[in-house]
Amino acid sequence: xxxxxxxxxxVAKASGAGQTxxxxxxxxxxxxxxAMASVGVVLLFVLLAxxxxxxxxxxxxxxxxxxxxxxxAWQAGxxxxxxxxxxxxxxxxxxxxxxxxxxxxFIGAAVIFVATTVGIxxxxxxxxxxGWVDVAISRLVDILLSFPYLIFAIGLMAMMGPxxxxxxxxLAYKEWVIPCRVVRGExxxxxxxxxxxxxxxxxxxxxxxxxxxILPNILSPVIVVSTIRIAHVIILEASLSFLGLGVQPPxxxxxxxxxxxxxxxxxxxxxxxxxxxxxxxxxLAINVASQGLRDAFDPRFQE
Length: 303
Fold this sequence. Notes:
By secondary structure, this protein is mainly alpha-helical. The chain has helices at residues 3-7, 21-30, 33-50, 52-55, 93-129, 131-145, 149-160, 164-175, 177-190, 194-201, 206-214, 219-242, 254-260, 270-297. The chain has one domain (35-301): Orthogonal Bundle (MetI-like fold).
């Protein structure tokens, strides 16, 4: 028996036409029309964020007090050049929503990337080495989980000050515990399997076993959890911006746009409503898409 055969996981292919398990799960996800429609909505927001300078009809920071609180185009006094109306400084709401998608998507992706990287490393170490390493990491995770997430982030932002980098760090400081717990549990279940024992018997290092043998076979639940958490991070970023602790003016942010319209909610409902709908639509699309990923890739939810 060759070394490659010993190192291979016990199940490499799914039944039927020689498809791999990943290909079968991907086809199952693609067959979920609601999930694919949600992916389309998410991709639309991503494209808006990437090509914002070419799509936005106006400069998002350009003020015009003559258009202060101008209503949407379909209401009396509105203009089609300012489709969703203007805010209290006469700035185009549609342009600010388009540019605000950059902040929400970038922060969500950056926080999840940093948190997932740290969480995978910590979870692998805790699950594989166990002993005092597991105890130390698990107690740190328990301590961080005991703090309410938003209050924890507010405290960090109050200490570090507002700013894009500080928002990413403040949210990632606690976000890593979620993938860490998932990876730790999967590693504990995987470290005793035959192909891991075979690699250990052949003299493979702990780093090699964790990265080459265990990690590729536990990525599916990690990807699913990380996708779900992106929506949560976007809501947290909007909450911090709403409280004035996030991205600072005049940079367009959905949370700060909602906050700007609080004083005009009865007479100029569009100032807060449209950025709030943007948050709702993106978060809902991410949640539905991640639900489809979970149903397709998590074995516990498959028939």
